[in-house]
């Protein structure tokens, strides 16, 4: 069965693997890619997305540039210290020059046109800050019926990475994240740090990827700065493919085990700003008036076959 998919992204090394995962999967109809500020500025994320699609031989996929800043408050910090100055370990220029330019009109216009034209439900996989998706749902609620699921990489249950409690994508625009995760009723799957860290891959995995051909070698070559960063946080030589884990669920529903929870996003200016507060209490123990899990609760990915995820991603990237 073919999955219709749109990726919203801020490439980013893990985004690069996620885009390639979708672009190289025969059972995915990749309708489009939209870009957003995040790991690096919008100009970089957009150029990276175009080059990655060109690497994968997918210049048939339209790309549109989206939000260059958060909805309300300035982005606190970018992630060049993790992804390199250009988002791809300083190696984006080694990727092929794109033969296709960005679509006119911007990301939200492209999202609306792709959803309206689709002949069936579409999954959206936001793997950067949620600004574009918040704008889409606020300004064009009529397209929600065309969205099958929003499968996003972001948030944390028991941890953060930008702060003790906040994951980078949510922390970059908490107001947008709250709009999507708390205020909307579109089916949503949140793939948090707690699970993606468990799906880290080692340098042997990267070596296998590099040995499979030009695309695998090019992807592995984007990882040195990312690998150096994760060597410090993991304590061993490996990388975390955060966004590829979310895209794996987007294209193969059920590869991650999820549980339904209400949640809140902290949009205050204290130390918890950007944290996702997942209410894992039994329904009867939630506060007065909260009752049972509401239909609008978010599916939170809590478990998977960790080795199987690595095999799934590697297999798709090396077909």
TrEMBL record:
GO biological process, one term: purine nucleoside catabolic process
Annotated region (Disordered), positions in chain: 82-101
Domain of life of the source: Bacteria
Keyword Hydrolase: yes
InterPro entries for this protein: Inosine/uridine_hydrolase_dom, IUNH, Ribo_hydro-like
One term of GO molecular function: purine nucleosidase activity
Stored Pfam families: IU_nuc_hydro
GO cellular component, one term: cytosol
Domain Inosine/uridine-preferring nucleoside hydrolase as annotated: residue spans: 5-307
Gene3D superfamilies named in the record: Ribonucleoside hydrolase-like (3.90.245.10)
Keyword entries, A-Z: Glycosidase, Hydrolase
Name of the featured protein: Nucleoside hydrolase
Lineage of source species: Bacteria, Bacillati, Actinomycetota, Actinomycetes, Pseudonocardiales
């Amino acid at each position: 069965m073919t999955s219709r998919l749109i990726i919203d992204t801020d490439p980013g090394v893990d985004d690069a693997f996620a885009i390639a995962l979708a672009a190289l999967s025969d059972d995915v109809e990749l309708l489009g890619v939209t870009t957003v500020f995040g790991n690096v500025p919008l100009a970089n994320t957009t150029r990276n997305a175009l080059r990655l699609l060109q690497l994968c031989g997918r210049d048939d996929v339209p790309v549109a540039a989206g939000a260059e800043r958060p909805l309300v408050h300035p982005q606190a910090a970018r992630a060049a210290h993790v992804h390199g100055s250009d988002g791809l370990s300083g190696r984006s220029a080694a990727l092929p020059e794109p033969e296709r330019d960005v679509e006119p009109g911007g990301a939200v216009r492209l999202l609306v046109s792709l959803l309206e034209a689709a002949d069936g439900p579409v999954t959206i996989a936001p793997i950067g800050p949620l600004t574009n998706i918040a704008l889409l749902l606020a300004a064009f609620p009529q397209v929600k019926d065309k969205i099958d699921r929003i499968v996003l990489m972001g948030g944390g249950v028991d941890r953060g990475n930008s702060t003790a409690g906040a994951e980078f994508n949510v922390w970059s625009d908490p107001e947008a994240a709250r709009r999507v995760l708390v205020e909307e009723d579109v089916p949503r799957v949140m793939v948090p740090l707690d699970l993606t860290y468990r799906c880290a891959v080692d340098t042997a995995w990267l070596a296998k990827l590099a040995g499979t051909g030009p695309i695998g070698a090019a992807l592995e070559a984007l990882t040195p700065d990312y690998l150096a960063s994760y060597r410090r946080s993991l304590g061993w030589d490996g990388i975390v493919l955060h966004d590829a884990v979310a895209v794996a669920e987007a294209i193969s529903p059920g590869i991650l085990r999820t549980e339904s929870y209400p949640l809140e996003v902290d949009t205050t200016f204290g130390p918890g700003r950007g944290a996702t507060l997942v209410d894992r209490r039994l329904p009867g123990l939630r506060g007065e008036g909260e009752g049972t899990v509401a239909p609008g609760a978010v599916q939170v990915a809590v478990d998977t076959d960790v080795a199987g995820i690595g095999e799934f991603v590697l297999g798709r990237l090396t077909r």
